[in-house]
Amino acid sequence: MDESGGDSGSVATPVQQRAHEAWRIYQHYLDKTTPHANYRWIGTLVVALIYCLRVYYIQGFYIIAYGLGIYLLNLLIGFLSPLVDPEAGGVSDGPTLPTRGSDEFKPFIRRLPEFKFWYSMTKAFCIAFLMTFFSVFDVPVFWPILLCYWIVLFVLTMRRQIAHMIKYKYIPFSFGKQKYGGRSSSGSRAD
């Protein structure tokens, strides 16, 4: 302990204070993007397009693209999977998917929420883009083999995921589903 009675190890340096303040500002703007899903995804598509154009024009960094593809496939599986897997048979405190027609309806809760899916995907594209500026990551590979292997992996993984969705009768998307609203305030009351 120092003379002021505080722990001397807890004193933040000016660099740590500035880093913390920068992180708070970053988190503030990240939080402000939460309700704007369409704009977030458009921004991610722009970042992905820039990354793809860079890899195409450089004609290299295919191993980075392959690693990015595997990571994105992993994120997609988490996004399409329920929080509690009915196959695991584990007891859960939270809601689970109905497995029989007589079961009570429970909403689909993703293992990887949409915001975290978007954020992880965008970070992955940014990191992969930055890696294209360092020649150490440009490992020479025969890219058609990597592409074929990734396509086979994608097809097999998605086939298994779709079979799981059919078996347990869940759809991880909300478009086309009936939406229920609250009471309408413009309705008239018969007295």
What is the gist of this entry?
It is a multi-pass membrane protein. Helix content is 54%, strand content 0%. With 191 residues, it is mainly alpha-helical.
Structure description:
InterPro entries: Rer1 (IPR004932). It is a multi-pass membrane protein. This is Protein RER1. This protein has helices at residues 14-32, 37-58, 62-80, 114-131, 143-167. Helix 3 packs parallel to helix 5. The chain has 191 residues and is mostly helical. It is globular, with a radius of gyration of 24 Å. It has one domain.
Find the structural class using helix and strand composition: mainly alpha
Uncertain runs: none
Count of helical regions: 5
Number of strands: 0
Characterize the largest beta sheet: strand count, sense, and whether it forms a barrel: none
Strand content range: under 5%
Helix content: 40-55%
Rounded to the nearest angstrom, the distance between the terminal CA atoms is: 75 Å
Mean pLDDT rating: 83
What is the succession of H and E elements? Answer: HHHHH
Number of domains: 1
Radius of gyration over C-alpha positions, nearest whole angstrom? 24 Å
Subcellular location: Membrane
Keywords: Membrane, Transmembrane, Transmembrane helix
InterPro entries: Rer1
GO cellular component, one term: endoplasmic reticulum
Give a topology summary.
Blueprint: H1 14-32, H2 37-58, H3 62-80, H4 114-131, H5 143-167
Defining key terms:
globular, 54% helix, 191 residues, mainly alpha
